[in-house]
Design a protein that fits this description.
Layout: H1 9-20, H2 24-37, E1 42-48, E2 54-59, H3 66-71, H4 99-105, E3 108-114, E4 119-125, E5 128-135, E6 140-146, H5 153-156, H6 162-179, E7 184-189, E8 192-196, H7 203-211, H8 213-216, E9 219-225, E10 230-236, E11 241-242, E12 248-252, E13 255-257, H9 260-268, E14 279-280, E15 282-287, E16 293-294, E17 305-306, H10 309-325, H11 341-347, H12 352-357, H13 375-386, H14 388-399, E18 407-412, E19 416-421, E20 424-429, H15 430-447, E21 453-463, H16 466-474, H17 476-481, E22 485-488, E23 493-500, H18 508-522, H19 528-542, H20 553-564, E24 579-583, H21 584-590
Parallel strand pairs: 1-7, 12-15
Antiparallel strand pairs: 1-2, 2-6, 3-4, 3-6, 4-5, 7-8, 9-10, 10-15, 11-14, 12-13, 16-17, 18-19, 19-20, 20-24, 21-23, 22-23
Helix pairs in contact: 1-4, 2-6, 6-7, 9-10, 15-19, 15-20, 18-19
Protein backbone atom coordinates (compact mmCIF):
# COMPACT_ATOMS: atom_id res chain seq x y z
CA UNK A 1 0.00 0.00 0.00
CA UNK A 2 1.39 3.40 -1.00
CA UNK A 3 2.24 5.72 1.91
CA UNK A 4 3.34 8.70 -0.21
CA UNK A 5 0.42 10.97 -1.14
CA UNK A 6 0.02 14.32 -2.87
CA UNK A 7 -0.15 17.08 -0.28
CA UNK A 8 -3.36 19.10 -0.10
CA UNK A 9 -2.90 22.55 -1.68
CA UNK A 10 -4.11 24.43 1.42
CA UNK A 11 -1.67 22.50 3.59
CA UNK A 12 1.16 23.19 1.15
CA UNK A 13 0.34 26.92 1.21
CA UNK A 14 0.39 26.95 5.02
CA UNK A 15 3.81 25.31 4.99
CA UNK A 16 5.05 27.81 2.40
CA UNK A 17 3.65 30.62 4.55
CA UNK A 18 6.13 29.64 7.24
CA UNK A 19 8.97 30.80 4.96
CA UNK A 20 7.33 33.79 3.29
CA UNK A 21 5.19 35.16 6.14
CA UNK A 22 7.26 35.19 9.32
CA UNK A 23 5.55 38.13 11.04
CA UNK A 24 3.43 41.22 10.38
CA UNK A 25 6.33 42.98 8.69
CA UNK A 26 6.56 40.13 6.16
CA UNK A 27 2.98 40.81 5.04
CA UNK A 28 3.67 44.54 4.71
CA UNK A 29 6.84 43.81 2.72
CA UNK A 30 5.15 41.51 0.20
CA UNK A 31 2.14 43.78 -0.34
CA UNK A 32 4.22 46.94 -0.68
CA UNK A 33 6.58 45.29 -3.16
CA UNK A 34 3.58 44.22 -5.25
CA UNK A 35 2.41 47.84 -5.25
CA UNK A 36 5.82 49.07 -6.40
CA UNK A 37 5.89 46.47 -9.18
CA UNK A 38 2.44 47.74 -10.19
CA UNK A 39 4.04 51.17 -10.86
CA UNK A 40 2.34 52.89 -7.92
CA UNK A 41 3.25 56.52 -7.21
CA UNK A 42 1.57 56.61 -3.80
CA UNK A 43 1.36 53.78 -1.25
CA UNK A 44 -0.47 53.91 2.08
CA UNK A 45 0.10 51.32 4.81
CA UNK A 46 -2.61 51.43 7.47
CA UNK A 47 -2.25 49.26 10.58
CA UNK A 48 -4.43 48.31 13.50
CA UNK A 49 -2.49 47.34 16.63
CA UNK A 50 0.83 47.15 14.77
CA UNK A 51 -0.73 44.92 12.10
CA UNK A 52 -1.74 42.12 14.46
CA UNK A 53 -5.42 42.91 13.91
CA UNK A 54 -5.35 44.37 10.42
CA UNK A 55 -2.95 45.45 7.67
CA UNK A 56 -4.22 47.50 4.76
CA UNK A 57 -2.08 48.54 1.78
CA UNK A 58 -3.57 50.98 -0.75
CA UNK A 59 -1.85 51.98 -3.98
CA UNK A 60 -2.59 53.89 -7.19
CA UNK A 61 -0.87 51.35 -9.44
CA UNK A 62 -2.13 49.77 -12.65
CA UNK A 63 -4.56 47.42 -10.88
CA UNK A 64 -5.88 44.06 -12.15
CA UNK A 65 -8.86 42.77 -14.07
CA UNK A 66 -11.23 40.17 -12.57
CA UNK A 67 -9.42 37.10 -13.91
CA UNK A 68 -6.01 38.25 -12.67
CA UNK A 69 -7.44 39.26 -9.29
CA UNK A 70 -8.53 35.66 -8.68
CA UNK A 71 -5.50 34.03 -10.31
CA UNK A 72 -3.12 36.11 -8.16
CA UNK A 73 -3.97 33.96 -5.12
CA UNK A 74 -2.91 30.72 -6.81
CA UNK A 75 0.47 29.42 -5.79
CA UNK A 76 3.31 30.18 -8.25
CA UNK A 77 1.03 32.49 -10.23
CA UNK A 78 2.99 35.53 -11.40
CA UNK A 79 3.17 38.00 -14.27
CA UNK A 80 6.85 38.78 -13.67
CA UNK A 81 8.70 35.75 -15.02
CA UNK A 82 7.60 33.28 -17.69
CA UNK A 83 10.67 31.38 -18.87
CA UNK A 84 13.79 30.07 -17.15
CA UNK A 85 15.85 32.80 -18.80
CA UNK A 86 13.75 35.44 -17.01
CA UNK A 87 15.09 34.11 -13.71
CA UNK A 88 18.53 35.44 -14.60
CA UNK A 89 17.30 38.91 -15.56
CA UNK A 90 14.95 39.90 -12.73
CA UNK A 91 13.92 43.57 -12.77
CA UNK A 92 10.99 43.39 -10.35
CA UNK A 93 10.85 43.09 -6.56
CA UNK A 94 8.55 40.06 -6.65
CA UNK A 95 8.71 37.09 -9.00
CA UNK A 96 8.17 33.83 -7.11
CA UNK A 97 4.35 33.96 -7.07
CA UNK A 98 4.13 32.68 -3.49
CA UNK A 99 3.33 35.73 -1.38
CA UNK A 100 -0.42 36.23 -1.86
CA UNK A 101 -1.18 32.51 -1.69
CA UNK A 102 0.85 32.17 1.51
CA UNK A 103 -0.69 35.25 3.13
CA UNK A 104 -4.24 34.20 2.20
CA UNK A 105 -3.73 30.72 3.67
CA UNK A 106 -3.13 32.09 7.20
CA UNK A 107 -5.45 35.13 7.33
CA UNK A 108 -8.64 36.75 6.10
CA UNK A 109 -7.94 38.71 2.91
CA UNK A 110 -10.01 41.24 1.01
CA UNK A 111 -8.71 42.44 -2.37
CA UNK A 112 -10.27 45.42 -4.11
CA UNK A 113 -8.75 46.33 -7.46
CA UNK A 114 -9.54 48.13 -10.68
CA UNK A 115 -7.73 48.40 -14.00
CA UNK A 116 -10.26 50.32 -16.06
CA UNK A 117 -13.87 51.31 -15.27
CA UNK A 118 -15.15 48.24 -13.44
CA UNK A 119 -13.47 47.09 -10.23
CA UNK A 120 -13.30 43.65 -8.61
CA UNK A 121 -13.75 42.61 -4.97
CA UNK A 122 -12.27 39.26 -3.89
CA UNK A 123 -12.68 37.74 -0.41
CA UNK A 124 -10.60 34.79 0.81
CA UNK A 125 -10.63 33.17 4.24
CA UNK A 126 -7.88 30.74 5.25
CA UNK A 127 -6.99 30.11 1.60
CA UNK A 128 -10.61 29.38 0.55
CA UNK A 129 -12.22 31.65 -2.02
CA UNK A 130 -15.47 33.02 -0.53
CA UNK A 131 -16.69 35.47 -3.17
CA UNK A 132 -15.82 37.45 -6.28
CA UNK A 133 -17.91 40.60 -6.87
CA UNK A 134 -17.91 43.81 -8.84
CA UNK A 135 -16.78 46.93 -7.00
CA UNK A 136 -16.15 50.64 -7.52
CA UNK A 137 -13.78 51.85 -10.22
CA UNK A 138 -10.88 53.54 -8.39
CA UNK A 139 -7.74 52.71 -10.38
CA UNK A 140 -5.28 50.80 -8.24
CA UNK A 141 -5.36 48.07 -5.61
CA UNK A 142 -6.34 47.84 -1.96
CA UNK A 143 -5.45 44.70 0.02
CA UNK A 144 -6.71 44.16 3.57
CA UNK A 145 -5.22 41.35 5.67
CA UNK A 146 -7.04 40.70 8.95
CA UNK A 147 -6.51 38.24 11.82
CA UNK A 148 -3.10 37.05 10.69
CA UNK A 149 -2.27 33.47 11.79
CA UNK A 150 -5.78 32.98 13.20
CA UNK A 151 -5.79 29.39 11.89
CA UNK A 152 -2.20 28.56 12.86
CA UNK A 153 -2.08 29.04 16.65
CA UNK A 154 1.55 27.93 16.91
CA UNK A 155 2.62 30.82 14.69
CA UNK A 156 0.23 33.27 16.35
CA UNK A 157 1.63 32.79 19.84
CA UNK A 158 5.16 33.48 18.58
CA UNK A 159 4.30 37.00 17.43
CA UNK A 160 6.28 39.54 19.45
CA UNK A 161 4.88 42.44 21.46
CA UNK A 162 3.03 45.23 19.65
CA UNK A 163 6.06 47.48 20.03
CA UNK A 164 8.36 44.88 18.50
CA UNK A 165 6.03 44.28 15.55
CA UNK A 166 5.56 48.01 15.02
CA UNK A 167 9.31 48.65 15.15
CA UNK A 168 9.92 45.88 12.60
CA UNK A 169 7.30 47.25 10.18
CA UNK A 170 8.57 50.81 10.58
CA UNK A 171 12.12 49.69 9.93
CA UNK A 172 11.08 48.01 6.68
CA UNK A 173 8.93 50.94 5.49
CA UNK A 174 11.79 53.35 6.25
CA UNK A 175 14.14 51.30 4.08
CA UNK A 176 11.72 50.81 1.20
CA UNK A 177 11.00 54.56 1.25
CA UNK A 178 14.74 55.21 0.97
CA UNK A 179 14.95 52.80 -1.96
CA UNK A 180 12.11 54.57 -3.79
CA UNK A 181 12.16 58.30 -2.97
CA UNK A 182 9.99 58.90 -6.07
CA UNK A 183 7.03 57.21 -4.35
CA UNK A 184 4.88 58.86 -1.67
CA UNK A 185 4.75 56.56 1.35
CA UNK A 186 2.41 56.97 4.32
CA UNK A 187 2.53 54.66 7.35
CA UNK A 188 -0.30 54.88 9.86
CA UNK A 189 -0.85 52.89 13.05
CA UNK A 190 -4.11 53.29 14.98
CA UNK A 191 -4.81 56.61 13.19
CA UNK A 192 -1.35 58.03 14.05
CA UNK A 193 0.99 58.94 11.20
CA UNK A 194 4.40 57.35 11.74
CA UNK A 195 6.01 58.24 8.41
CA UNK A 196 5.12 60.40 5.44
CA UNK A 197 7.36 61.09 2.47
CA UNK A 198 6.66 63.53 -0.35
CA UNK A 199 7.64 61.37 -3.35
CA UNK A 200 9.74 64.19 -4.82
CA UNK A 201 12.53 61.77 -5.81
CA UNK A 202 14.90 63.66 -3.50
CA UNK A 203 16.71 61.06 -1.42
CA UNK A 204 18.01 63.62 1.06
CA UNK A 205 14.44 64.77 1.80
CA UNK A 206 13.46 61.16 2.45
CA UNK A 207 16.42 60.81 4.82
CA UNK A 208 15.20 63.96 6.60
CA UNK A 209 11.68 62.53 6.92
CA UNK A 210 13.06 59.36 8.51
CA UNK A 211 16.05 60.48 10.58
CA UNK A 212 15.31 64.16 11.11
CA UNK A 213 16.92 67.44 10.09
CA UNK A 214 19.99 67.10 12.33
CA UNK A 215 21.04 63.88 10.62
CA UNK A 216 20.14 65.06 7.11
CA UNK A 217 22.33 68.15 7.57
CA UNK A 218 25.30 65.88 8.19
CA UNK A 219 24.99 63.50 5.25
CA UNK A 220 27.51 63.46 2.41
CA UNK A 221 26.55 62.57 -1.14
CA UNK A 222 28.62 59.91 -2.90
CA UNK A 223 28.73 58.63 -6.46
CA UNK A 224 31.18 56.35 -8.27
CA UNK A 225 31.28 53.63 -10.90
CA UNK A 226 33.46 51.08 -12.62
CA UNK A 227 32.91 48.68 -15.51
CA UNK A 228 30.28 46.60 -13.68
CA UNK A 229 28.88 48.72 -10.86
CA UNK A 230 27.52 52.19 -10.25
CA UNK A 231 26.99 53.32 -6.67
CA UNK A 232 25.23 56.42 -5.37
CA UNK A 233 23.63 57.66 -2.18
CA UNK A 234 24.50 59.37 1.09
CA UNK A 235 26.82 58.57 3.99
CA UNK A 236 26.80 60.21 7.41
CA UNK A 237 29.64 62.20 8.89
CA UNK A 238 31.61 60.04 11.34
CA UNK A 239 30.09 61.94 14.28
CA UNK A 240 26.67 60.49 13.37
CA UNK A 241 26.50 56.85 14.40
CA UNK A 242 24.24 54.25 16.01
CA UNK A 243 24.75 51.28 18.34
CA UNK A 244 23.62 48.77 15.67
CA UNK A 245 23.92 48.21 11.91
CA UNK A 246 20.30 49.10 11.26
CA UNK A 247 21.25 52.48 9.83
CA UNK A 248 23.28 50.86 7.02
CA UNK A 249 20.84 50.50 4.13
CA UNK A 250 22.14 48.72 1.03
CA UNK A 251 20.06 48.67 -2.12
CA UNK A 252 20.65 46.71 -5.30
CA UNK A 253 18.76 48.09 -8.29
CA UNK A 254 16.45 49.74 -5.70
CA UNK A 255 15.85 46.44 -3.88
CA UNK A 256 16.50 46.41 -0.11
CA UNK A 257 19.03 43.64 0.53
CA UNK A 258 21.10 42.10 3.31
CA UNK A 259 24.76 41.27 2.80
CA UNK A 260 27.06 41.04 5.81
CA UNK A 261 30.21 41.49 3.72
CA UNK A 262 28.94 44.75 2.23
CA UNK A 263 27.92 46.03 5.66
CA UNK A 264 31.35 45.16 7.04
CA UNK A 265 33.09 46.92 4.16
CA UNK A 266 31.01 50.06 4.72
CA UNK A 267 31.65 50.08 8.45
CA UNK A 268 35.37 49.35 8.02
CA UNK A 269 35.64 52.36 5.71
CA UNK A 270 35.02 54.53 8.79
CA UNK A 271 37.81 52.86 10.75
CA UNK A 272 39.50 55.28 13.19
CA UNK A 273 36.93 57.96 12.28
CA UNK A 274 34.40 56.62 14.82
CA UNK A 275 34.30 54.08 17.68
CA UNK A 276 34.54 50.51 16.37
CA UNK A 277 31.42 49.52 18.34
CA UNK A 278 29.27 52.15 16.63
CA UNK A 279 27.85 52.15 13.09
CA UNK A 280 27.21 54.95 10.58
CA UNK A 281 23.99 55.88 8.80
CA UNK A 282 24.46 55.01 5.13
CA UNK A 283 22.12 54.71 2.16
CA UNK A 284 23.83 53.23 -0.90
CA UNK A 285 22.11 52.11 -4.09
CA UNK A 286 24.12 49.71 -6.26
CA UNK A 287 23.16 49.62 -9.93
CA UNK A 288 24.31 46.65 -11.99
CA UNK A 289 23.30 44.23 -14.67
CA UNK A 290 20.74 41.82 -13.11
CA UNK A 291 22.76 38.89 -14.47
CA UNK A 292 25.58 39.73 -12.02
CA UNK A 293 23.45 39.11 -8.94
CA UNK A 294 21.33 36.21 -7.68
CA UNK A 295 18.28 37.25 -5.64
CA UNK A 296 16.62 33.83 -5.77
CA UNK A 297 18.31 32.45 -2.63
CA UNK A 298 15.59 32.85 -0.02
CA UNK A 299 11.82 33.47 -0.26
CA UNK A 300 12.26 36.91 1.34
CA UNK A 301 14.54 37.90 -1.61
CA UNK A 302 16.74 39.98 0.71
CA UNK A 303 19.75 37.64 0.90
CA UNK A 304 21.65 37.90 -2.38
CA UNK A 305 24.90 36.81 -4.02
CA UNK A 306 27.19 38.90 -6.22
CA UNK A 307 29.34 37.43 -8.95
CA UNK A 308 32.09 40.07 -8.47
CA UNK A 309 31.81 40.92 -4.78
CA UNK A 310 35.47 41.83 -4.18
CA UNK A 311 35.33 44.39 -6.97
CA UNK A 312 32.19 45.94 -5.47
CA UNK A 313 33.65 46.05 -1.94
CA UNK A 314 36.75 47.79 -3.25
CA UNK A 315 34.65 50.40 -5.08
CA UNK A 316 32.50 51.14 -2.02
CA UNK A 317 35.43 51.29 0.42
CA UNK A 318 37.51 53.55 -1.79
CA UNK A 319 34.58 55.90 -2.46
CA UNK A 320 33.67 56.31 1.21
CA UNK A 321 37.28 56.78 2.35
CA UNK A 322 37.98 59.38 -0.32
CA UNK A 323 34.75 61.24 0.46
CA UNK A 324 35.49 61.72 4.16
CA UNK A 325 39.25 62.07 3.81
CA UNK A 326 39.55 65.73 2.82
CA UNK A 327 36.66 67.45 4.60
CA UNK A 328 36.32 69.24 7.91
CA UNK A 329 35.16 66.66 10.44
CA UNK A 330 35.22 68.92 13.49
CA UNK A 331 31.87 68.40 15.29
CA UNK A 332 29.88 71.63 15.25
CA UNK A 333 28.28 71.94 18.71
CA UNK A 334 24.96 73.77 18.49
CA UNK A 335 22.40 74.76 21.10
CA UNK A 336 19.34 72.56 20.77
CA UNK A 337 15.67 73.39 21.21
CA UNK A 338 13.38 70.59 22.27
CA UNK A 339 9.76 70.29 21.29
CA UNK A 340 7.66 69.87 24.43
CA UNK A 341 7.26 66.10 25.07
CA UNK A 342 3.73 66.82 26.28
CA UNK A 343 2.75 67.82 22.74
CA UNK A 344 3.88 64.48 21.35
CA UNK A 345 2.33 62.32 24.06
CA UNK A 346 -1.01 64.14 23.94
CA UNK A 347 -1.44 64.29 20.20
CA UNK A 348 0.47 61.43 18.61
CA UNK A 349 1.11 58.31 20.68
CA UNK A 350 2.54 57.32 24.04
CA UNK A 351 6.15 56.49 23.15
CA UNK A 352 7.50 55.71 26.63
CA UNK A 353 7.40 51.89 26.36
CA UNK A 354 8.67 52.01 22.79
CA UNK A 355 11.56 54.31 23.72
CA UNK A 356 12.60 52.03 26.55
CA UNK A 357 12.60 48.90 24.39
CA UNK A 358 13.86 50.40 21.11
CA UNK A 359 16.02 53.40 21.82
CA UNK A 360 17.93 52.89 18.56
CA UNK A 361 14.92 52.31 16.28
CA UNK A 362 14.08 55.43 14.29
CA UNK A 363 10.32 55.93 14.42
CA UNK A 364 9.34 59.26 12.88
CA UNK A 365 6.05 60.92 13.75
CA UNK A 366 4.42 63.90 11.99
CA UNK A 367 3.99 66.61 14.60
CA UNK A 368 0.66 68.49 14.58
CA UNK A 369 1.11 71.81 12.80
CA UNK A 370 -1.72 73.95 14.21
CA UNK A 371 -3.61 74.51 17.45
CA UNK A 372 -1.88 71.87 19.57
CA UNK A 373 1.59 73.44 19.23
CA UNK A 374 2.44 76.05 21.84
CA UNK A 375 3.30 79.52 20.59
CA UNK A 376 6.98 79.29 21.54
CA UNK A 377 7.36 76.13 19.39
CA UNK A 378 5.47 77.29 16.29
CA UNK A 379 8.17 79.56 14.95
CA UNK A 380 10.87 76.96 15.52
CA UNK A 381 8.98 74.21 13.65
CA UNK A 382 8.22 76.59 10.77
CA UNK A 383 11.89 77.57 10.59
CA UNK A 384 12.96 73.91 10.50
CA UNK A 385 10.61 73.25 7.57
CA UNK A 386 11.47 76.28 5.48
CA UNK A 387 15.24 76.60 5.87
CA UNK A 388 16.46 73.03 5.43
CA UNK A 389 18.01 73.62 2.00
CA UNK A 390 19.65 76.81 3.22
CA UNK A 391 21.02 75.07 6.32
CA UNK A 392 22.32 72.21 4.18
CA UNK A 393 24.14 74.66 1.92
CA UNK A 394 25.78 76.38 4.91
CA UNK A 395 26.75 73.02 6.41
CA UNK A 396 28.33 71.92 3.13
CA UNK A 397 30.36 75.13 2.96
CA UNK A 398 31.60 74.56 6.52
CA UNK A 399 32.51 70.93 5.82
CA UNK A 400 34.64 71.76 2.82
CA UNK A 401 36.98 73.93 4.92
CA UNK A 402 40.17 72.25 6.07
CA UNK A 403 41.76 72.20 9.51
CA UNK A 404 41.57 75.81 10.77
CA UNK A 405 44.32 78.17 11.87
CA UNK A 406 44.11 78.42 15.66
CA UNK A 407 45.59 80.45 18.49
CA UNK A 408 45.86 78.94 21.97
CA UNK A 409 43.96 80.64 24.79
CA UNK A 410 44.53 78.20 27.66
CA UNK A 411 43.90 74.71 29.06
CA UNK A 412 40.86 73.53 31.04
CA UNK A 413 41.38 70.91 33.78
CA UNK A 414 44.77 70.04 32.34
CA UNK A 415 42.96 68.16 29.57
CA UNK A 416 41.21 70.40 27.03
CA UNK A 417 43.12 72.99 25.02
CA UNK A 418 41.02 76.13 24.41
CA UNK A 419 41.70 77.74 21.03
CA UNK A 420 40.05 80.44 18.97
CA UNK A 421 39.92 82.12 15.56
CA UNK A 422 37.59 84.59 13.88
CA UNK A 423 34.86 81.94 13.51
CA UNK A 424 34.56 80.87 17.14
CA UNK A 425 35.97 78.66 19.88
CA UNK A 426 37.61 75.25 19.54
CA UNK A 427 38.28 72.67 22.26
CA UNK A 428 41.02 70.08 21.67
CA UNK A 429 41.40 66.91 23.76
CA UNK A 430 45.16 66.81 24.24
CA UNK A 431 45.21 63.03 24.89
CA UNK A 432 43.12 62.22 21.78
CA UNK A 433 45.17 64.64 19.67
CA UNK A 434 48.48 63.11 20.73
CA UNK A 435 47.06 59.62 20.12
CA UNK A 436 46.27 60.57 16.50
CA UNK A 437 49.73 62.07 15.96
CA UNK A 438 51.43 58.99 17.44
CA UNK A 439 49.17 56.61 15.53
CA UNK A 440 50.01 58.05 12.11
CA UNK A 441 53.72 58.23 13.03
CA UNK A 442 53.91 54.54 13.99
CA UNK A 443 51.68 53.41 11.15
CA UNK A 444 54.06 55.08 8.72
CA UNK A 445 57.11 53.56 10.39
CA UNK A 446 55.57 50.09 10.27
CA UNK A 447 54.51 50.49 6.64
CA UNK A 448 57.88 51.85 5.48
CA UNK A 449 60.53 50.36 7.81
CA UNK A 450 64.01 51.85 7.37
CA UNK A 451 65.66 48.87 9.12
CA UNK A 452 67.59 51.13 11.50
CA UNK A 453 67.97 48.95 14.58
CA UNK A 454 69.27 49.31 18.11
CA UNK A 455 71.10 46.36 19.71
CA UNK A 456 69.78 45.58 23.18
CA UNK A 457 72.29 45.81 26.00
CA UNK A 458 70.37 43.05 27.76
CA UNK A 459 68.55 40.81 25.24
CA UNK A 460 64.92 40.16 26.14
CA UNK A 461 63.86 36.52 26.62
CA UNK A 462 60.14 35.66 26.52
CA UNK A 463 58.45 32.30 27.12
CA UNK A 464 55.01 31.39 25.76
CA UNK A 465 52.54 28.48 25.83
CA UNK A 466 53.06 26.03 22.97
CA UNK A 467 50.12 27.29 20.87
CA UNK A 468 51.21 30.94 21.14
CA UNK A 469 54.87 30.11 20.50
CA UNK A 470 53.94 28.31 17.25
CA UNK A 471 52.08 31.43 16.00
CA UNK A 472 54.99 33.73 16.87
CA UNK A 473 57.53 31.38 15.28
CA UNK A 474 55.49 31.34 12.08
CA UNK A 475 55.79 35.14 11.81
CA UNK A 476 59.50 35.59 12.50
CA UNK A 477 59.89 36.95 8.96
CA UNK A 478 57.35 39.69 9.62
CA UNK A 479 59.21 40.78 12.76
CA UNK A 480 62.54 40.70 10.92
CA UNK A 481 61.13 42.86 8.12
CA UNK A 482 60.26 45.67 10.55
CA UNK A 483 63.66 45.60 12.29
CA UNK A 484 63.62 42.95 15.01
CA UNK A 485 66.45 40.49 15.57
CA UNK A 486 64.53 37.57 17.01
CA UNK A 487 65.57 33.93 17.43
CA UNK A 488 64.42 30.72 19.05
CA UNK A 489 65.81 30.28 22.55
CA UNK A 490 65.16 26.91 24.10
CA UNK A 491 61.73 25.31 24.44
CA UNK A 492 58.81 27.61 23.61
CA UNK A 493 60.97 30.70 24.15
CA UNK A 494 62.28 33.52 21.96
CA UNK A 495 65.09 36.00 22.45
CA UNK A 496 65.12 39.54 21.03
CA UNK A 497 68.62 40.94 20.53
CA UNK A 498 67.77 44.14 18.61
CA UNK A 499 64.72 46.26 17.85
CA UNK A 500 63.84 49.14 15.47
CA UNK A 501 65.02 52.57 16.56
CA UNK A 502 61.52 54.05 16.49
CA UNK A 503 60.34 52.10 19.53
CA UNK A 504 59.57 54.59 22.33
CA UNK A 505 62.51 55.18 24.63
CA UNK A 506 61.94 53.84 28.09
CA UNK A 507 59.09 51.61 26.90
CA UNK A 508 61.05 49.22 24.64
CA UNK A 509 60.32 46.01 26.56
CA UNK A 510 56.61 46.80 26.93
CA UNK A 511 56.34 47.69 23.25
CA UNK A 512 58.02 44.42 22.19
CA UNK A 513 55.65 42.38 24.37
CA UNK A 514 52.61 44.18 22.93
CA UNK A 515 53.82 43.60 19.37
CA UNK A 516 54.22 39.86 19.98
CA UNK A 517 50.80 39.78 21.66
CA UNK A 518 49.31 41.37 18.55
CA UNK A 519 50.69 38.54 16.42
CA UNK A 520 49.20 35.94 18.77
CA UNK A 521 45.82 37.71 18.76
CA UNK A 522 45.39 37.48 14.99
CA UNK A 523 46.56 33.84 14.70
CA UNK A 524 45.17 32.39 11.43
CA UNK A 525 43.58 35.73 10.44
CA UNK A 526 46.93 37.48 10.47
CA UNK A 527 47.60 40.10 7.83
CA UNK A 528 50.34 42.70 7.76
CA UNK A 529 47.74 45.48 7.45
CA UNK A 530 45.84 44.35 10.56
CA UNK A 531 49.10 43.81 12.42
CA UNK A 532 50.41 47.30 11.60
CA UNK A 533 47.06 48.82 12.54
CA UNK A 534 46.94 47.02 15.89
CA UNK A 535 50.52 47.88 16.84
CA UNK A 536 50.17 51.53 15.83
CA UNK A 537 46.94 51.89 17.83
CA UNK A 538 48.44 50.24 20.91
CA UNK A 539 51.62 52.33 20.88
CA UNK A 540 49.81 55.59 20.17
CA UNK A 541 47.63 55.14 23.25
CA UNK A 542 50.45 54.11 25.57
CA UNK A 543 52.55 57.15 24.73
CA UNK A 544 49.87 59.84 24.46
CA UNK A 545 49.67 62.81 26.81
CA UNK A 546 47.46 61.86 29.72
CA UNK A 547 44.62 63.91 31.17
CA UNK A 548 45.76 66.39 33.86
CA UNK A 549 49.33 66.14 32.58
CA UNK A 550 51.02 69.54 32.42
CA UNK A 551 52.17 70.55 28.95
CA UNK A 552 54.01 73.77 28.11
CA UNK A 553 52.65 76.28 25.60
CA UNK A 554 55.46 75.42 23.19
CA UNK A 555 54.55 71.72 23.38
CA UNK A 556 50.89 72.52 22.83
CA UNK A 557 51.71 74.58 19.74
CA UNK A 558 53.83 71.71 18.41
CA UNK A 559 50.99 69.26 19.12
CA UNK A 560 48.45 71.36 17.20
CA UNK A 561 50.85 71.73 14.27
CA UNK A 562 51.48 67.96 14.21
CA UNK A 563 47.74 67.32 14.42
CA UNK A 564 47.08 69.67 11.51
CA UNK A 565 49.56 67.71 9.37
CA UNK A 566 47.84 64.37 10.03
CA UNK A 567 45.85 62.64 7.30
CA UNK A 568 42.86 62.61 9.67
CA UNK A 569 43.33 65.26 12.38
CA UNK A 570 39.72 65.03 13.54
CA UNK A 571 39.61 61.67 15.36
CA UNK A 572 41.83 59.57 17.59
CA UNK A 573 42.57 55.98 16.44
CA UNK A 574 39.55 54.78 18.44
CA UNK A 575 37.21 57.15 16.60
CA UNK A 576 36.68 59.73 19.35
CA UNK A 577 36.82 63.41 18.28
CA UNK A 578 40.06 65.29 18.86
CA UNK A 579 38.46 68.71 18.43
CA UNK A 580 34.99 70.29 18.66
CA UNK A 581 33.76 73.70 17.49
CA UNK A 582 31.45 76.35 18.95
CA UNK A 583 30.68 79.14 16.46
CA UNK A 584 30.46 82.77 17.54
CA UNK A 585 26.75 82.66 16.77
CA UNK A 586 26.24 79.57 18.97
CA UNK A 587 28.09 81.26 21.82
CA UNK A 588 25.94 84.37 21.47
CA UNK A 589 22.78 82.26 21.52
CA UNK A 590 23.93 80.48 24.66
CA UNK A 591 24.31 83.82 26.44
CA UNK A 592 21.11 85.28 24.90
CA UNK A 593 23.10 87.95 23.07
CA UNK A 594 21.55 87.15 19.69
CA UNK A 595 17.92 87.11 18.60
CA UNK A 596 16.59 83.74 17.41
Amino acid sequence: MSVIKQMDELLANKIAAGEVVERCASVVKELVENSIDALAKEIKIILKDAGTKEIKVIDDGIGMDKDDAVMAFNRHATSKIITEDDLYNINTLGFRGEALASIASVSEVTLKTCQEKQGTLVKINGGKLLSVENSDGRIGTEVTVANLFYNTPARLKHLKSLYTELASITDYVNKIALSHPEIRFTLINNDSILLKTDGSNNLLKTIKAIYGTDVAKKMLEIEANDEDYKISGFISLPEIHRSNRNGIVTLVNSRVVRNSELNKAINDSYHSYKPDTRYPIVVINIELDPSLVDVNIHPTKMDIKFSKLEELISLISTTIKERIKNINLIPHIEEKYEINDEIISNNIIDLTPLKEEYQEQTLVFDLPKKETIKEENKEYIKEEETTFDEIKEEETEYLEKKFPELSIVGVVNGTYIVCQNEEGMYLIDQHAAKERVNYEFYLKKLGEPNLEVTPMLFPLTLEYPVNEYIVIREHFDTLTDIGFNIEEFGINSVIIKAHPTWLPKGYENDAIKHILEAIVTFENKFSIEKFNESVATMMSCKLAIKANQYVSTEELEKLILDLKNCDNPFNCPHGRPTIVFHSNYDLEKMFKRSGF
